[in-house]
Amino acid sequence: MTVSNQVVQLNHEFDSHIRERLSKTNATILFCRMLAYLSEYSLAIKYFQRLLRVLPIEHEDRPNIHYQLARMYRFLSKHQQAIYYFRCAKLLQRRGLPYNTYEYGMTLASLGTVYLKLNDSKRAVCVLEQASICYNLVSQNYNTETIFHFNRLSYAYYLEQQYERALQMLNKALPIYKQKMPVDHPRHAQTYHNLGLVHRAMGGNDKALVSYQ
């Protein structure tokens, strides 16, 4: 059971995170993200493609439009199109470094997710490690996005048979999840699942069983 004051704190942190994300999103992008939340991915793609046609080539929203387009294609499992637009977003965002380092990290992390879907673990590890640098995880200023990043990178390490690094990442992630996320959050379960995979691969079947349970 979670006591009420902890629930209030969790809700406050989540609300603050959402407000921060929305404050960096203009109305044009927000409208299309709402289409995505409604699973209207094809409509969102048409809308973003139209924006790319009408906006000036140096418009400040173009990197984010490419990023959002890539996400829509990823949701539709059109991975090659997703990779193309994530790469476009990455190139455009690179011009604004270091001021948009966090957004650049999100693009790298999302690109790594697509590589994981394609079982290209080597490329996934490469871009996810770059995302870790952008997120500056050593600062311990964790939010929802950076917490989820632990699962992505640990799974990439597992696929690359870098079990010690995966285990280190997961052992670091668990206390953060317990502190920041509800105990029944699905990503919490994913952390234990990844931990079970790593323990089993390292021959620790008893520890793997506990994690799976």
From TrEMBL:
Keyword check for Transit peptide: no
InterPro entries registered for this protein in UniProt: TPR-like_helical_dom_sf
Pfam families (UniProt xref): TPR_12
SUPFAM superfamilies for the chain: TPR-like
Source taxon at top rank: Eukaryota
Keyword flag Repeat: yes
Alphabetically ordered keywords of this record: Repeat, TPR repeat
Protein name, entry field: Tetratricopeptide repeat protein
Organism of this sequence: Rotaria sordida
